[in-house]
Amino acid sequence: MTDLDLLHFEQLKKDVQAEYLKEHTPSFHDISKWKGIDIIYFQEDLRKKAKGNISEKSFYTYFKNSPVTKLPRIDMLNLLSNYAGYESWYEFKKEHLFSGELLLENQELDEEDEEELEKTLQSIPVTENKDDENKKTQIIPSEKPVLQKTDTDNQINKQTSPSSTPSEELIINPTKSAFQKYGWVGITSFLVIMLGVLGFKDEIFQKTYTYCFADADRNLQVQSTIEIKVFKLNESPLFYRIKPGECFYYQTKDKNLRMQISSPFYENLEVSRNLENAPEKETIELKPDDYKMAVYYFSTKDVTGKPSEQISTKRKQLESLISNEAVIYQVYDNAIYGVETLNKQKYITLVTTPTTSLKNLSVIEMKKDKKGKIVLIKFKISTNENDK
Hints:
Blueprint: H1 3-21, H2 37-50, H3 56-62, H4 74-83, H5 89-95, H6 101-122, H7 130-160, H8 167-199, H9 201-205, E1 207-215, E2 226-231, E3 238-242, E4 248-252, E5 256-263, E6 266-274, E7 281-286, H10 290-300, H11 307-321, E8 322-331, E9 339-342, H12 344-351, E10 361-368, E11 374-381
Helix pairs in contact: 1-4, 4-5, 10-11
């Protein structure tokens, strides 16, 4: 990647913006200021004209920052180039060459060739000089007589020296050595076993308890995210998030369990268990909150039949369920733009706009007041793209 490629990408962003402005009127003329429903409309137009899609995370990474410091993947570059009217990213660059760009590319190729040649020279093995080997072999014979003489003198001295080791000691010493050897092996094994028991005593004495969750009215598995707080004595609560349709597995050696269960569409429930006589597997029923479920249903329901009549009906239903003072948050899957605040009317406009993105809308949190009106909604619209 070169700096010229980054400049080409900035050109491509301007062409993409110009192509979208031909048929649409977003909130801002500058593409870097688009957000929320502007991005959703742009994604729809991209799918329509270029038969592809980019996620909100990619949009905020590459369009909200200018200039960018890294290029997107080649498939995204080809998709945006196709949307702007070119066959590929290569064709776009070809039509927007800078002065002297070809010369710079040739210089880079020459430098790469030089580096490759240097690596090849370094890989040639270095052989020893045969003259050095001959010198080494000539030195060895001159030392042999001296070594033999020394060995002979040593042998004579050993023969003349009297033996001072009795034969009985030769028999007793191996017996003691064997006993000490096996004794140390036994002691070491015992110590290793004891350390293992002490180190893993929690895992050895722990039991696993399984808790599944069912809808109290429908007698079906709960198909929404469940959050669980486990309270332990003199400790901060432990937090767990359970995926839709899954059970909660909890390992402990404690005798009591106290936990709080919450879900976007169900009433909060606090559960206490004496684990000395409690079953290892249990199904807990959650009472559904019909108001919260109704808001989610009307937010994600497809508009069929005559669009104008269906949208009008859908807006009235949401108007009656959501408070005028409701606080609504949209959460994004990126660190650049984490949360956006919407008022009641913006939220209703967003969820009554017939786009395919609403199929991926999920509610994170929802609260209502004493009168039954929804006063808080936290949601996100996820994407299917796996960004690197």
